[in-house]
Amino acid sequence: DSPFLVLGIESSCDDTAVAVLEEPRRIRASLVMSQVEDHAPHGGVVPELASRRHQEAIMGLVRRCLWQAGVSNPMRQLSLIAVTAGPGLMGSLLVGVMAAKGLSQGWEVPIMGVNHMEGHLFANVLAHPDLKPPFLCLIVSGGHTEVHLVRSFGDYRLLGATRDDAVGEAYDKVAKMLGLGYPGGPVIDRLAREGDPDRYQLPVPFKGSSQVEFSFSGLKTAVLWLVRREGEALSVPDLCASFQRAAVESLVSKVKLAMNQTGVRTVAVSGGVAANRELRRRLEDLAGSSGGRVRVYLPPLELCTDNAAMVAAAGLWAYRRGVRDDLSFRADPSWEL
Ligand code: KG4
Ligand code: ZN
Questions:
Q1: Cβ distance 233 to 200 under 8 Å?
Q2: What is the pLDDT of residue 42?
Q3: 286 Cβ partners below 8 Å, 6+ apart?
Q4: CA 298 to centroid of ligand 1, rounded, Å
Q5: Which listed residue, of 137, 215, 223, 236, carries a Cα 20 to 30 Å from 4's Cα?
C-alpha cells in the first residue's frame, strides 16, 4: 500500500515554496526560497520583481524537493498537487498556479487550488495533532491580520480583520522610518527587549471598540510624528518597545474579545508575526493564568511563515473531506476564506 503523497506549491507573495507531505502529517521535504534580499533595497515587496524571481526559482525547486522527498516517479507516486490560488499578488500567484496545472496535466495527478489563509491555519493542524475544531485562528503576517472562527475544517467564519495595514506591514514601515532595514519585525522585536515600553505613549488601535477589528496605520503615523518631534533625542529601543507593546496589546485584546464573543477559548496563531516574542509571551500568560480554560497553539517558526507544507496540508484535508477541483480554477488575488 503506497502512501498518499501531496505536492504543495506556494508563490503568493515573496517566497517560492515547494513541499511533499505524506498523509497525514509527515513532511518529507519542504523548501522555501526567500526573496527578502531582492526586495530589501526597496523596503518592501516589489510585485513585478517577485513574479520574475518565482519564475526563475519554481521548477528547480520542484525538482529538488521531489528528489529530497524520495519521489523518483511523480506520475506514479504523487496523489495530489495542492497549490495556492489566492489571496496574494496576481503575478506571483500565476507562476505557482500555472506550474501546478502543467504538472497536473502532464503527470495526470489531481490538482487542488488552496486558499493561502487556509494554508496558514493548517500550519497549526500539521504541528498539533491534538488541535480540534472549534478554535480561533489568529493570522498575523506582512499581508494579513485576521481572526477566524474554525467551526470545522472547511467551515470558517471571519470574525474580524485589519481595516488598513497588516501588523507585520506596520513593523516593516516603522523599521523603515528608523532606518533598521527590511523585514523590520525581527529587528524591532530584538531592540524592544532593551527598551522601556513606558517611555512613549502610543495609541492602542480600537482599544475600546466592541468589535473584532484592527488598524495599524494610525499607530504608524503616531510613530512618525514622534520620530519627527524627538529628533536627535529619540531612543530607538524605547520607541521599539513602546510600539511593540501597543501593537501586541491590540492583537491580544481582540483575541480576548473574540473568545468572549464566541465562547471558544482555544486559539491557534500563524503567520510571520507569530514569531514575535512579546505576542507569544502575552498569549502564553493568558493561557497560564486561565486555569486551563484558555489554550494557545503556536506552530514552529518554519511553519508560521509562508511555506508549502501548510498548503499541501490544507489541500489534503480538503481532498479527504470530498472536495475536488479541476484545471479550470483560477488564481484569485482577493480570494476570501
Ligand atoms: O508570514 P510572513 O513570512 O510573510 C507574509 O507576509 O506572508 O510574514 C512576514 C512578516 C514581516 O512583516 C515581518 O516583519 C514580520 O512577519 N515578522 C515579525 C517578526 N518576525 C517576522 N514581526 C514581529 N516580530 C517578529 N519577531
Ligand atoms: Zn502568508
A1: no
A2: 86
A3: 252, 255, 256, 294, 296
A4: 14
A5: 137
Distance CA 58, CA 181 (A): 27
287 and 315 housed in the same domain: no
pLDDT at 1: 80
| pLDDT value, residue 217 | 95
Asked if residue 43 has pLDDT above 80, the reply is no
- Whether residue 75 sits in one domain with residue 164: no
**Per-residue DSSP letters for 179-232?**
T--SS-HHHHHHHHTTS-TTSS----TTSS-SS--B--HHHHHHHHHHHHHHGG
Per the annotation, binding residues for Fe cation are: 116, 120, 306
What's the gap in Å between 168 CA and the centre of ligand 1?
Answer: 5
Per-residue pLDDT at 157? 97
Residues 71 and 178 occupy one common structural domain: no
Q: Whose C-alpha lies nearest to ligand 1, atom 19? A: 185
Segment 265-305, tens digit of pLDDT: 999 999 999 999 999 999 999 999 999 999 999 999 999 99
The annotation places the binding site at 116, 120, 139-143, 172, 185, 189, 276, 306
- Please tell me the distance between residue 266's alpha carbon and the centre of ligand 1 in angstroms: 23
Asked if residue 162 and residue 266 are part of one domain, the reply reads: yes
Is residue 74 in a domain? yes
The pocket around ligand 1, CB under 6 angstroms, is made up of 13, 141-143, 168-169, 171-172, 183-186, 189, 271-273, 275-276, 305-306
Residue 219 to residue 295: CA distance in whole angstroms: 29
Residues 201-253: pLDDT tens digits? Answer: 999 999 989 999 999 999 999 999 999 999 999 999 999 999 999 999 999 99
pTM of whole model > 0.90? yes
Instruction: State how far the Cα of 236 lies from the Cα of 242, in Å rounded to an integer.
Output: 10
Check if the beta carbon of residue 305 is closer than 8 Å to that of residue 315: no
Residue 169 CA to residue 220 CA, distance in Å, equals: 10
